[in-house]
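Fig. S4 source data, part A: sequence.
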Amino acid sequence: MPLTTSLGYLSLLAAPAAAFWRLPCKSTLVVERADPIVAPGNISGHVHQIMGGNGFDFEMDFADTQDSSCTSCTVHGDFSNYWTPVLYYQHEDGTFVKVDQVGGGLVYYLQRSGPNNDKLEAFPEGLRMISGDPFKRSPGDDFASQAISYNCLDYKKNPGNPETPGFPNINCPDGLRTQVFFPSCWDGVNLDSADHKSHMSFPIGSYNDGSCPDTHPRHLVSIFYEIIWDTNKFSDKWHGNSQPFLWAQGDPTGYGFHGDFLMGWDKAILQKAVDECTNDSGRVEDCPVFELYPDSTAEGCKLPSRIDEDIQGPFAQLPGCNPVQSGPDKATPVTNCASNSTIGEGKSFFKDLTSSGWGYQGCGKDDYYSRALTGATTSQDDMTNEQCVQFCGDKGFSIAGSEYGKECYCANEIPSAAAPVPGVVGNCNMPCAGDDTQMCGASGSLSLYQKCTGGTCSNSADVGGTKPAAGSSSSAVSAPSSSASAAPSSTGTSVSASASVSIGNPSSGNAVTKVQSTSTSATAAPTETNTASSPSGGSNANPSSSSSASPSTPTNPTTLTPSWSYLTCLPDTITTRTLPKLAPYTLNNSLVTSTSCVSWCASNGYILAGTEYGGECWCGSDMPSDMTGVDEAKCDMACKGDESQKCGGAGVLSLYGVDTAVTKRASWMKRGVEEVKGHMKRHGHGDMSRQHARRFGGWA
């Protein structure tokens, strides 16, 4: 695809950098043919992936968003919904199959006040808008066209791949990132319009910065979506002379990508963040206005699809009867599709066993090295939830939990550390070995049932998976913390404080953490860990990390993988990472040390390693030639896996490298703080890559 070369697009190179934050949406809420903006109360013409609050419905307003009991994004106070079309792959025989997303998505909130330093406002309650045109099939130089772009991610061989206005015609080893920017100027009157666009406008002079026109004088905070798709899965299945992917509405060009936004923020929180979150690191953690939910809570916020149709494939026709329309003329909407037209209730996320005398309690947490349910256990290749509750009942227990598809655990109480988060479905998404129509927990997750007593038997009312009732509060997730705010067990025991000991081989990518009780009486939230159902090989790593006494000053380790050494404290570019590869074992950041990070990066063929924010490990093999080191005092965070070691800081990396490959370049990484300040001043804050300057502005 050709690069966009309009004057408006090129003018972004001179745009000033601005404060922003990235809202992580950890997973999709639901994937279905729903669009309450374009097709309220009806089935949408094509499939969307939807993120955000579980108040989402086929027809909804601002009040519905506020009834949410959870959100798939991580910031407290935001129950907005964000959605885009779904990506499909077309086989050589003409059939289609859905492409998986990599996680959920990122929503950027940017404070772009323009040359007149306009007062930026939070979105008004009830605002809804669309950016992009699903029927567009050709490029354009207008702002609406420039607001749509793609980036083919190839971190090792071509980290600087240019952005394109349509689908790139090359394979993307690390995924295809799809991007849509929304207009930020509001007419001040209408919360919607007939085309869902006219009440909004892009600024004067650029789609992502500038002053607002007189017709749309109210300058709102800007938003921008990034969604990554796992297209590399199909790298050996390309055919013909062009790329094989298309959007759900039958668009093989990419020009028809679009995004929808429905405001669901607590407006006071959003306005406070717009006014006060002026850090340009992009991290929501750096904004004191925000309270954050644990990732597992966001990942576990789900709704079932209410349309009984296959959206995964393979199938001969896209859902909604959408034909492939290549253009260049605009596509013709489908109006006579005879496919499913019924909006149902949606399937339950759990097996109802009330007829057998057991009520579902929700999806709880487990730890391989410190089991939540310790009464009795069994593993069966034909496991179902019926068999699990039968087994536990026969053993005299009142609590049963299925896990990892075929395991069953029993007890007489659910420890508060393992209790389900009220109103959240959780991550119990592994089919039972004996019946793939029901879920039997997952790795580190328990499908929990309790034996009923008395004359009635019912499931818990707080297991999530349905649209909350009108007027219901969102208190189920209104107190963010590092764990579920669960009630104590029936025996009245309090939650024990915990310390983590890393166990397993970090380079395997699936190391786990054992949680050890310190027998305190405080009701402290347990550390959230990323556990596996079975351990990886390897020896204990950093047993000293369980010590309650922290070193006064962490240092850079000197005993490292041979030929590696410490280089400098280096700024991390947020939108395109300085080191692009996040080591998968750091998803459980209690395992991270600078030593383990260097080991993982080295074993996977990288020559640079960097730890950041106490619990992140990044790898790479190249660096922008004009990046420079900063004051070592900025890399002051102790590693979460070993508090005696430094692991970078907020927006800065403790950088390590292979001696023979990096020492020739080390001099430019240690030029000192004053030169860094001059560099940042010249380039409008040097924390942006040249590539993403086109999206956000930042390099002169």
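Fig. S4 source data, part B ends here. The first helix runs from residue 7 to 10.
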